[in-house]
Structures are given as structure tokens and as C-alpha cells.
Amino acid sequence: MRLDVGSILGIAIGLSAILLGNMLEGGHLSALFQPTALLIVAGGTVGATMLGFPLPVFVRAVRALRDVFTSPPQQDNNSLIEEIVEYAQKARREGIIALERPLETANEPFLKKALLLAVDGADSKSMRDNLELIIEHYEDDKEQLAKVWEAAGGYAPTIGIIGAVLGLIHVMQSLSDVSAVGRGIAVAFVATIYGVSLANLLLLPVAAKLKLRLREETKRLELMMEGALAIQEGLNPSLIREKLSSFYQETRKKSEAGGVSTRAEVRT
Fold this sequence. Notes:
Elements: E1 2-3, H1 5-24, H2 35-52, H3 55-63, H4 65-68, E2 70-71, H5 77-94, H6 109-119, H7 124-173, H8 178-232, H9 237-256, H10 263-267
Antiparallel strand pairs: 1-2
């Protein structure tokens, strides 16, 4: 997989803007590097997130971070539509049973499963119910990974405030020691910066990117489902091509306009 330049550039620009702004205000970079504050915010956020989710889900969410910074394989939906049309042409010529052998080499497992349901004689309603349930379970599973990062983005600023309070407590206990007062105030303010920055520059954007990727994957699965149902209903291959092309264009426009949500988001 190739690196996702947009994700990497986004973090670089965000961090650079904060550091440059600090320098323009006369601040020193060294003042922003406080190991104690980092330990409090990072450790506290990780701990709270692990408490809120099952460990396997948390581990999978961490692994999903790789998907945010790499570009997924390019999915050609036009080629997918043409593949479905080819299956439709074969089913129209030789009967839907004739699809069983070609499906053995199908590249898309979901499309293969959908068409095998049709080959096995499932009716349209049971096929749609079965396939929608599969898509729903897939969305629920993937949605959990985004929710892990979303939750971490909610915890981080609060943990930053805890770090700030701890720093101020230390200051109040060491008023007689000027150097200790300075260190305590630094930890107090830097912990807050760490918490807010971590949430808004990394955690919440990661959750948003995972949701966007899930939305794209779901659209592709729904395209396969509509194609398989059209073949099961015996529609003309040309009509199937037109129907799937219109379906894909419509869902893409809604997605670009922010109007397409995952099924999990709709339910919540």
C-alpha cells in the first residue's frame, strides 16, 4: 500500500502551525516538551479507552491506524459493474445455475456469496434480508474501531485537565521553591495543550477517516447486493448496467454532500 499523503500532510501542517505560532508569540519549543505532562495525558487516555472497550476491539483499533496513513487499493466500481453485467449476460443465456462454476474464481467474496444465494434458489426478499444483515454486521464491526478513536478523542482533553490540576497542586505545595513553581505551572498548562491537541489533531480525525473508509466500503457492498438482486430478478443486462451506474452515482453524490451515513449511525 502507498502512504496516504493527505493524512501525513494534515498532521504535519497542524503541528507546524501550532509550533510556529508558539515561536511567533516569543515562546520556546523546549517549554512545550514536558515528559510528565505527556505521560499523564497519553497514559491516562490509553487507560480510559482500554477500560471502555474490550481488549480485542482496542487492539484492532490500534492496528487500524495503519489504514489511516496508507491509501487503500484503488477500487474500480466501473469494472465491478461490468463484471456483474457479464454474470447477468451468462445467466440470461444459460440460466442462473450456470453461474456456479464461474463464481469459483470471483474476486469479491461478498458478490460470490450474494450470487450463490440466487443460484441456490433464494427469493428476492430473503436474499435482500440476508445480504443486508451481512452488511449491517460488517458495519457494526468496523464502526467499533472508529468509536475507539472517537472515545479516546473525548477522554484526552479531560485527562489534560487532570494533568493541569495535578500541576497546580504541585505548585501550591512548593510555593517556597521558585524553580518547583515554574515546573509545576509548565506541566499544568502543557498537559492541557497535549490533551486538546492530541484529540483534535490525531484521535478525532482518525475516527473520521475510518468512518469515511467504512462508508466507501459499504457503498461497494450495496452495489454488489443490488447487482445480485437484479440478476436474480432476471433483469436485462443493459438495464442492470444502467441501474447500477445510476445507483453508484447517486450514492457518491450523497456522500460528497455529507448525506450518506452508515447504518450504525442511523440507528444511533
